[in-house]
Amino acid sequence: MAAAFGKLFYRQLTVKAPDSFPQVPGKTYIITGANSGLGLEAARTLSRLNAAKLILGVRTISKGEEAKQSILASTKRDASTIEVWPLDLNSYSSVIEFAQRCETLDRIDGVLENAGVDLKKFEKSADSGDELTIKTNVLSTVLLGILLLPKLRDVSLRYGIVPILSMVSSQVHAMVKFPEAKDPNIFDTLNDEKKTKMSERYFLSKLVLMFAFREMSDKMTASGKKGKVIFNNVAPGLCYSGLHRNNPDIEAGPQALMMKTIARSTVDGSAFVLPALFVGEDGHGKYINDGKAEEPSSYVRSKCGQEAQKKVWKEIMQKLEAVSPGVERLI
Ligand SMILES: NC(=O)c1ccc[n+]([C@@H]2O[C@H](COP(=O)([O-])OP(=O)(O)OC[C@H]3O[C@@H](n4cnc5c(N)ncnc54)[C@H](OP(=O)(O)O)[C@@H]3O)[C@@H](O)[C@H]2O)c1
Predict the structure, then answer these.
(1) Which atom of ligand 1 is nearest the CA belonging to 39?
(2) PANTHER family recorded for this chain (predicted)?
(3) Considering the domain 2-322, what is its CATH architecture?
């Protein structure tokens, strides 16, 4: 774990953000959590690269409209190239409605599942009773990804392209232990306030997301369905964004100096996210960190990690099948 921190510090100070990407005329991208931070800057870059259509998935429409105006002001593109659609990952029905609306798009070239939270207060989602960090960063993110697969495969077959689905993860997946993996039901423990350390919850959510990502990408490879889709996950490094709004230490406490010294801007952070949308077919199943594919933590790859991964996946599927029957068969 100390090694993971050391690596983070070193790389934050030495790795330069990618600064050029191919033009994307005619292409359509969906970006969740696109009203602020890395999502907003990724959308701005795709607009600058001449994307034909951008769908900004946001939970507050007025914030999404502001983001759209901010992008248009900097790129001078036509307003019709950007649409703001409601998406609240706290609500499964919102996720399902968003996915259904995506089916009306003619094509989708890339989906950046970027929306995420780092909550410090334990709170449960109204519809499913799951702790909100886990619901947002993992359960709804996975549900949306799976629900979009049939459309992405259809686009692949109709246009002869390989659309990309990418989930934004984090190096912090390597900086937390997962004793919950040994409990009879992992998510019951994660939803028990008495057993929860909220200071670690964000890190844990990204570890659980890493497990879900790896299992899902293997299942996509094995399913052999027609229509190719590349599925990857991408870590942007530590960035100074709205993510830390619930963490007072970031502004004034012991973490403030670290943030000032090593955190990237949201523009640079987005430049570390975008490579995920420009990989070839060999980028399927890959974890992209600081712009390059690399292995996730040794725990994730260990025998214990693999057992935890299977258990996490089984429980996620039990939960998602209850809200969207047949969802696992879509993979
Ligand atoms: N910043 C970092 O150091 C860092 C490092 C590694 C990974 N990441 C990941 O990068 C991604 C983007 O984070 P960021 O740093 O850009 O933070 P941010 O500025 O807080 O952006 C997060 C975005 O997610 C949206 N969001 C949160 N909850 C949502 C929900 N229930 N439904 C729909 N949208 C929701 C937020 O919308 P609202 O404005 O409405 O809240 C916001 O647009 C996250 O997945 C984060 O975990 C960040």
Answers:
(1) 16
(2) PHOSPHATIDYLINOSITOL-GLYCAN BIOSYNTHESIS CLASS F PROTEIN, PHOSPHATIDYLINOSITOL-GLYCAN BIOSYNTHESIS CLASS F PROTEIN-RELATED
(3) 3-Layer(aba) Sandwich (3.40)
